Amino acid sequence: MAEGFKSGFVALIGRPNVGKSTLANRIIGQKIAITSAKPQTTRNRIRTVYTDDRGQIIFLDTPGIHKAKNKLDNFMVKTAEKTLDGVDLILWLVEPTSYIGAGEQHIAELLKGRKTPVVLVINKVDKIKKEELPAVIQSYKEVLDFAEIVPVSALKGNNRDELVKVIFERLPEGPMYFDEDTVTDQPIRQISAEIIREKALRLLSDEIPHGIAVVIDLMKEREDKPLWDIEAEIICERDSHKGIIIGKKGEMLKKIGAAARHDIEVLIGNQVNLKIWVKVKKDWRDAESLIRNFGYREEDGEL
User: Fold this and answer.
1) pTM for the complete prediction?
2) Measured between alpha carbons, how far is residue 98 from residues 108, 140, 142 in Å?
3) In CATH, what number does 6-170 get?
4) Burial of 131 (C-beta count, 10 Å sphere; 0-12/13-18/19+)
5) 291 close to 301: Cβ distance less than 8 angstroms
6) Per-residue model confidence as pLDDT tens digits over 113-126
7) CA pair distance 264, 272, nearest whole angstrom
8) Best label site of 39, 148, 234, 298, fewest CB within 10 Å?
9) Sequence ranges of the domains in the chain
10) Which class does domain 188-293 fall in?
């Protein structure tokens, strides 16, 4: 390991749908955290790893901070807030607007008084004119004292290298926590479940996705051929939702399955035989036992 090698833990925080997962995926160069246009996509704290000659960055991608409406929401918000403790750097992602609403004000209050340096990352700058950016920067300067302010487009990759440079400048010298080819500490089973949930998020109507979870019941490689058998369940809260997820003659479930299978095959590098069932667990987002069963860990957030 070279002299001056830097390493550390970096929390990605922000309101739902500001692009935290997209940014993490952009920096490490492949998809680990799922993304969609709908808020509250990330539920657990996803850990992704970026390594180069300068050092190693361990990103903790958190659920969006928002007003909790049920026990799952409460878990997600607690997960995000707990992630702020014990990290070396905080990246606060915001959208490029000079109006600072109640959600952003709440996050600013969480960050005030912390010794951990905070870098403001203004995402989605490809959606505004260059001359509008100074007003956005000035508005946020009045809210908090930032170590740095970096405008980026996570979707297009604009200023990605500059942000990585800023992160390394703020990290301490330290060990390599993970092998240099590691990009996540998440099990393939969990990533596969998240991929299926992402496809459902993208394809289903707005009222359904927040009420679904995905559980992998079987994940096994065949001995006689390079093929994986995966059996999964999509859990929803209403019988009416089950019908929509399956769709007319099973068409919607086929679309979800086909899209998910493609990404899972890329992930594991082999063909996949994917079977998905849909089950109803009424109001599971307010049932602590079911929340745990569906993979939301107590050490990440308090139920």
Assistant:
1) 0.63
2) 15, 8, 11
3) 3.40.50.300
4) exposed
5) no
6) 888 999 999 999 99
7) 7
8) 298
9) 6-170, 188-293
10) alpha beta
